[in-house]
Amino acid sequence: MIDRRVFLHGSAATLALTWGFSASACAPSPDSARDISAMPIHGLHAPIEIVDDVYGVPHIRAASIPDAFFGQGYVVARDRLFQIDFAHRREMGLMAEAFGADFAKFDATARLFHYRGDLAAELRGIPADVLACARAYVAGINARIDEVAADRTLLPLEYTILGVAPMKWDVRDLVLARGGSIGNVDDEIRRAQLAALGLLDLDAVVAPLSPPWPMAVPPGLDVSKVSEADFGVMRLGGLPFGPGTPTVDPADIATERANAGSNAWTIAPSRSATGRAILANDPHLGIGGFGPRHVAHLSAPGLDVIGGGAPGLPGIMQGHTDRFAFGRTNFHIDQEDLFVLTLHAEDPERYAHDGGWKTFKKVAVDIPVKDAPPRRVTLRYSVHGPVISHDPAGHRATVMGSVAMQPGGAGAFAMIAINLAHDWASLRTAFRLHPSPTNFHYADIDGNTGWQVIGFAPVRKTGEGLLPVPGDGRYDWTGMRDFAALPSEYNPAKGWFASANQNNLPAGWPRDRIPAFSFRDPYRYNRIVDVLSKQDKHTLADSVALQHDTLSTPARQLVALLPKRRSNAADLLREWDGRIDGDSAPAALFQILWRDLGKRLLAAIVPDRAKSLVTEIAPSVLLGLLAHPDARLGPNPVAARDALFDAALASAWASALELLGPDPAAWRWSKLHQVRIVHPLASIPAIAAAFPAIQGEGTGGDSYTVMARWLSNGPSWRASGGASYLQVIDVGAWDNSLMLNLPGQSNDPRSPHYRDLYAPWIAGRMQPMLFGRATVDAHVAARRTLTPGKTRR
Prior knowledge:
CATH superfamily of the domain at 558-674: Aminohydrolase, alpha-helical knob region
Shape: globular
Largest sheet: 11 strands, mixed
Number of strands: 31
CATH topology of the domain at 558-674: Penicillin amidase (Acylase) alpha subunit, N-terminal domain
Distance between the termini: 37 Å
Structural class: alpha+beta
Low-confidence stretches: 1-27, 244-252
CATH class of the domain at 558-674: Mainly Alpha
Strand content: 15-25%
Number of helices: 24
CATH architecture of the domain at 558-674: Orthogonal Bundle
Helix content: 25-40%
C-alpha cells in the first residue's frame, strides 16, 4: 500500500484546501538565478564538486566514497525534494502532523509497517562501509534541507503553496519504515471468494498460474468467511487532498502490478559488433506523476558509478561503474501471505496458535496532529506480522506476513553495496543485502557476462501461498532462502541472455523451491529472443531499436483469427503488420477491439455471481478461447465465438469512428494513447497552476510490446506506465552509452530540465550518458563546489 510507485495517488474527500498561490512560482529557478556556492554545507568531510551537464545529470566529484553519496543525497534533494520528502513523511507516519486529522489513519497504517525488531541489530548487520555511505546520503538530503530553510527562496514551490516545511531524515528511518505493500494478497482473497462460490477454476481466467500448479483450498480455511473486509487497513483509499484528487482504484493498482516489469538483455563480446559487451535495460514503472528515476554520477577514489537511482534511496539501481554495467528486471517471489487468525471468544487480544493461545504484541503510538492533540492508536502484531484487520465480534483477525518485515528485509542498503562492488565475486556478497526479487544483469570490461536472481524467499511449513491460510501454526514460515538458492548463469555459451518477467526458472527446477506462480505471459521475452537470436553482431543501435520495438504477438495472433467474412474492421486489420505504432490506424482499431473482446468474453463465460471477482481476462486466455472455443461459450461454441467476434468488430469500428473521426485514414493510435504527466497533487488548484502539465504527445506500444507503454484501467486510453528510464551501455567504451529519463531530471517547473526529455522520450531519441571527465567537462551547464561547514552538535 505504501509503495513508492503509488504513494501520491489520492481520493475524493471532504478536506477543503485553502492554501494560496504565490506569484513567485513563475520566477526562475533560484539555484540558477543566484550564486549559492559560498554557503557552507554541514556533514561533508571535504569539498565536493557538482558538475551539471547539459542534460541535467549531476556529476559528483568527491575525495571520499561517503562524500560521493553525500553528494547524491544533496542533488536528489535539490532536484526532487518534495517528491522524496512527501514519500518519507508518509512512510514515517507523519502526514497528520503537517496536514491535519484526516491523515491520522494513514499514519497509523504506515506505522503498523514499521520494523518492531531490534533496530540497533539491524544496523550492526550492515557492513560498515555501506552504512557510512547511507549516513552520508541522509546527511546530504539534510544539508539541502538546511540550505532551503536558511533561504526560503530556494524552497520548491509546493512548500509555500501547502504551508509546510520539509522534515529531516535519520539513517535509522531506512531500517524502520518497511513500506507495507498489498503484494499478492488481493489474489489470495479473490481465489478464496471464488472457492466459496465453487468457482475456483475461474481464477485461471484472470491470472493463469505460471508455472502451472494445481490449486486447492488449504485445509482449515473457511472460505465462506473470506471477504473484502480482510484487507482491513490495506484498503484505506487515497490521501484526502480534496475533491477531484484521483482515487486509488484497486483495479488501477492491479493493472500497474500486472504490467510493472522491465526488459533487459546482455550481449557478450562474441555477439557484439563492438567486440565489447552491451547491456540494455528499461525498467517499467508508472507514468503520469513524479518520475521514478533520477540520474546521477558518483565519483571518488575507489568509486565511479552512473545511472538511474530511485529518489529517496541511496545508490544507483541501473547503470555502470568503471568496471561493469548492471541492470535489473522484476523476478517473481511470493513474499506475502495472508494469515487468518481465530480470536479467543472471551479475550480478543489472544489468538489460537500451535495448539494454544498467544497474546498479540501491542504497541501504542501517539500520532501528532496539526492543530490538535496527538491521536493514540494501538497496533497489533502476531507471530506472523502486522494485524491488518481485527474483528472481535467475528472472533477473527487477518495478518500480513511479509518478507519486508523480517530481519534484514529493509533493502535500503543493497544498491550501495552493489555500487561498491568491483566484480562478479564481490557482487555476490552485496546480493545478501537485497531482499526484493530481481533478475540482475551484469557485464564487465573483461568480457564476462552474468545473470543472477536475487531476493529473499520465505520457507513455508506447507502450502504455496496461493490462498489465505489459517494462522494456527500449520502454515507458518520457518526461515528465508536468499539468492544462493535461486537461478544464475555466468558466461552462457550462446553469448546473450534476456529477461522480461517471463518464467525463467531452469528446466527441472525443484518443485519444492518454486518461488512464485505469477510469471508474466512471455510475449515481450519471445520477441526479444526472436530478434537477438538472428543478430550475429549486435550493435548499440540494435539495442535502441529493440527497446522501441512495437511488434505485438497478441495482435498478430488475433488478426490470424479474424472471421473470413468481410467487414470494414476486419479488412483494415488484415492488411496490418501487427506493429503498435503511434501513427497507425489499425493499431488504434486493434486496441479498441481487444478491449471490447475482453469484455464480451468475460460476460459470456463468467456467471453473474462471480462477475465482481473476475473483471479481467489474461491475454493468453482470450486468444486461446477465440482460437479453440469450448463449452464455456455454450452448446455451440464455434457459432457463439463467431457471433461474438462479429459483434465486437462492429462495435469497435463504431467506437473508432466516434473517438477518432469519420476518416479511417486519419486514425492514429497516438491520438488515444496520450502521455500526460501531472503533479500528483494537481487537484489542488494552486499546485495545478504552479506545475503545468507535461502533455501534448501520444505514443505507440502497449502492455505486450517490447516498447512497453501500458494502458490505464479503462475507460481511459492514456499511457499510464512503461519504460520511463532507458539505458544502453557500451561496456568499457562508456561514453558511447545512451539513456533517456522521462520527463527530465527536475520536478521544478522553473528548471530547464523539468520536461526537456519528454519530446525525446516520445520520439525514442536516446541521449548521451556522459561519463569520462573530459567528455563531461566539454558539456558543462553549471558547476558548484560544496564546502564543509562546522559540524553541528
